[in-house]
Design a protein that fits this description.
The protein has 628 residues and is of the alpha+beta class. It has 19 helices and 21 strands. The protein is 37% helix and 19% strand. Helix 14 packs across helix 15. The chain is globular and about 85 Å long. The protein binds ligand BES and zinc ion (ZN). Ligand BES binds next to strand 18, helix 4 and helix 16.
Length: 628
């Protein structure tokens, strides 16, 4: 009896839904029944109510002849009505019902489609809806949270499964559709989307977009703010708040050249334009590869173009991720690992091997650190490239493993087979899988037939399986780039033994990457006076460079160096970027003494964070109630 009751309870809570009707454990959509081919959005951004209101018209293809249930993903949407378009251009109501809310997946929206003779192969369904103020994908910023401090700002961040919190849609990366949109905003603001747009449009409160290339739901993106445009090259440009526009266009002056290098390596750029949008500081990621318009954190504007690997990364997603897409989040490494490899190839082509090698070495360092952290916390299984995330939130895939182990796997192939062969393989992969989804087994098959078959014996089957499915680091990894950090590491060692005084460090000549290497590899038990010397002499924490500041603050927290506290506080209050804040909070949560400081800072910082960042840090700082 109890077993049945428990089972019913699980059904009611949606826990069994993870088995999923379709191939994706993170979506209610069943693409064997219906597939969305096109979405027409008509939305108004209401800043006072913090809601989007309007409609979406979905062009839906009936895949199974007898299909009558169209199931969409939603999360916290207020559904006001569902209608079917008829041949006369009118609309007739459709029966629909929202299912129980699942913690991770949200709510299925079940729509009864006509059966029998009325069932055309293509039909249009219109959903009238509003988002809620707390919608997971949306951050509504008050004017004080922007660079200009005068006008409000709204943006979406939908990857991995939050598109459903602002559009009722089949929210699965294996399902692609084209879209168009009409967006209404208060006068004086400009709307932008991941779509074709008119760069010169006046700010009349009404904006139109067309996205002719089919993309998955997580790549539909919207931003509204006081945004100006400046061209960088014939196909490239940057949008930013007026206060940021000049520094942004200086920082990203090489973007047109990056695009040319990427095309030479991987084949044609298939999205017409490539623009950047500089986000407010609370943007939870370094960058987000929204097609035609990468969203970029302002923390990469360092004044010296030293952090542009972020741009080459998001640009590289125009091939791996956006053109060829993982069909589920278990295969996230296909998006991010291949992109990490491409990112450094583009970097090398534009800036030379030294910078690319420094980034590769830092990547290896992060990979080692991530494997150690995951192993210590009992999550060894998550150190594999291919994950099993059924029943878990896909954000849990968000570790350095997909990026750095995935990137290292590509480098391993390059080491064994040669650059020319890898480049030919990748160009073919992007051509043959263009505008399609890919799974790891499909990638494997393609890899065997298009690359490994031509080089018998170069990579063994055992090695391949170990890379894709093994945990930790494989037995054989490609040699690390030699030489680039030798100098800074020698200075570090001499400084630690006292052979070199603090003022004798040649830190003025260090690149940010060398600074990061120096700070990240110092032991955590340095006495306060030594840290104070570094602080006074070189002020790494005050650096205009966010990456150096982060490495310094992490060292300070690890070493319980109290004088850094005010700087730590202003840092955590002023940026909401995952990578910048995650490790800092993790270290702050590690001991009781630190937790008191961490909780006080988090209480101040939290209101400014995006919902996704709040959720992340809430989890890390879950013991704050105990210290209050
Ligand atoms: N697509 C990711 C961001 C992302 C991943 C958002 C998963 C939500 C879920 C983006 O391309 C990315 O990887 N950003 C990195 C920067 C990159 C240079 C490593 C980041 O935000 O730090
Ligand atoms: Zn990425």
């Amino acid at each position: 009896m109890r077993g049945v009751a428990a089972l019913l309870g699980m059904l009611a809570s949606g826990a069994l839904a993870h088995a999923g009707p379709g191939p994706d454990p993170h979506s209610y959509a069943d693409p064997s029944q219906f597939v969305v081919r096109h979405a027409s959005l008509d939305l108004e951004a209401d800043f006072d109510a913090r809601r989007l209101h309007g409609t979406v018209e979905l062009r839906v293809e009936r895949v199974a002849k007898e299909a009558t249930l169209l199931r969409l993903d939603t999360r916290g949407l207020e559904i006001q009505g569902v209608e079917l378009g008829n041949a006369e251009g009118g609309w007739t109501p459709l029966a629909h019902q929202s299912g129980a809310a699942d913690q991770i997946l949200g709510q299925p929206l079940d729509i009864r489609m006509p059966a029998g003779r009325e069932a055309a192969p293509m039909q249009t369904v219109r959903v009238r809806y509003s988002t809620r103020p707390e919608a997971a994908a949306l951050q509504w910023l008050a004017p004080e949270q922007t660079a200009g401090r005068v006008r409000p700002f709204l943006y979406t961040q939908s990857q991995p499964i939050d598109a459903r919190s602002w559009i009722p849609i089949q929210d699965s990366p294996g399902i692609r559709f084209t879209y168009d949109a009409r967006i209404r905003t208060p006068a004086g603001l400009r709307a932008l989307m991941s779509a074709a747009r008119d760069t010169e449009r006046s700010r009349d409160g009404e904006y139109f977009f067309v996205m002719p290339q089919a993309i998955p739901a997580y790549l539909v993106a919207l931003a509204v703010g006081d945004l100006e445009f400046r061209p960088l090259g014939p196909r490239t440009g940057v949008y930013a708040e007026p206060a940021m526009l000049a520094s942004a266009s200086r920082e990203f002056g090489d973007v047109e050249q990056m695009l040319a290098v990427a095309e030479r390596l991987f084949g044609p750029y298939r999205w017409d334009r490539y623009d950047l949008l500089i986000m407010p500081p609370s943007f939870p990621f370094g960058g987000m590869e929204n097609p035609r318009l990468s969203f970029i954190t302002p923390t990469v504007i360092a004044g010296d173009r030293s952090l542009v690997s972020m741009i080459t990364h998001e640009m590289a997603h125009s091939w791996s991720g956006n053109l060829v897409t993982n069909t589920g989040w278990n295969d996230f490494w296909l998006n991010e690992g291949i992109t990490t490899y491409l990112e450094r190839r583009i970097l090398e082509g534009v800036y030379g091997a030294r910078l690319a090698d420094m980034e590769r070495l830092l990547g290896l360092q992060y990979l080692d650190e991530e494997i150690a952290t995951l192993t210590e916390s009992g999550r060894r299984a998550d150190t594999a490239l291919v994950l099993d995330l059924s029943g878990r939130a896909p954000e849990e895939a968000l570790s350095n493993i997909a990026y750095e182990k995935g990137g290292l796997f590509m480098q391993f192939l390059e080491w064994r087979l040669g650059r020319a062969a890898i480049d030919r393989f990748l160009a073919g992969y992007f051509r043959d899988f263009a505008f399609r989804g890919v799974t790891t087994p499909e990638f494997e098959t393609y890899l065997r037939s298009r690359l490994l078959a031509d080089h018998p014996g170069a990579v063994s089957e055992r090695e391949l399986q170990e890379w894709l499915h093994g945990t930790g680091l494989p037995g054989v990894v490609p040699p690390a780039p030699a030489g680039v950090f030798v100098d800074v590491e020698r200075q570090r060692d001499d400084w630690l033994t006292g052979r070199l005084a603090t003022r004798e460090l040649e830190a003025r000549q260090w690149s940010p990457q060398e600074w990061m290497r120096f700070l990240d590899t110092l032991p955590a038990d340095l006495p306060d006076p030594r840290l104070a010397e570094l602080d006074e002499h070189w002020a790494p924490g005050a650096a205009g460079n966010f990456e150096i500041a982060r490495s310094w603050l992490l060292l300070a927290v690890r070493s319980d160096y109290a004088p850094a506290e005010p700087r730590l506080e202003s840092f955590l209050v002023s940026t909401g970027r995952h990578k910048m804040i995650k490790r800092l909070y993790e270290e702050l949560a590690r001991t009781e003494a630190r937790l008191a400081v961490g909780c006080r800072i988090y209480a101040r910082a939290r209101p400014g964070y995006h919902p996704a960042a709040r959720q992340l840090v809430d989890g890390i700082m879950r013991n704050c109630e105990a210290v209050q």
